[in-house]
Amino acid sequence: MGFNSFDGFMFSFLPIFMVVIPILVIGTFVFVIVKGLSQWTKNNNSPRLSVPSQVVTKRSQTSGGSGDSSASTWYYVTFQVESGDRVELGVKDSEYGMLVEGDFGILTFQGTRYLGFERK
Question: HEC profile for the chain?
Fold first, then answer.
């Protein structure tokens, strides 16, 4: 039993470990790429809508920025349309700064893609 059985275990475990981890990493990359392409295709096939709406709220999400890594920030705005439904869309930082909670206007979007907001 002793040392020789442990060596046998390690030699049988290591090859499995060296195969499973790369498969999981590659699988994750493939999943993210397929999901992104799927959303892009869905947006392209969605109608381009321009609807009266109000800016309800704004938020940002920051990640990274610890140590030597740079931070990334994403900006989101929630709009409420006439029916009472709300839609949250990602916007560019320049658009985020120009939109004010309570603004009324015409929101133009396609699927989950923000195309613009014309204040009234």
Answer: CHHHHHHHHHHHHHHHHHHHHHHHHHHHHHHHHHHHHHHHHHHHHCCEEEEEEEEEEEEEEEEECCCCCCEEEEEEEEEEECCCCEEEEEECHHHHHHCCCCCEEEEEEECCEEEEEEEC
What are the two backbone dihedrals, phi and then psi, of residue 44, each rounded to the nearest 5 degrees?
-65, -30
Predicted confidence at residue 78, as pLDDT, reads: 98
Provide the mean pLDDT of the chain: 88
Say if residue 33 is in the same domain as residue 56: no
Q: Are residues 37 and 52 in the same domain?
A: no
pLDDT at position 60: 96
The range of the structural domain enclosing residue 35 comes to 1-45
pLDDT at 4 over 60: no
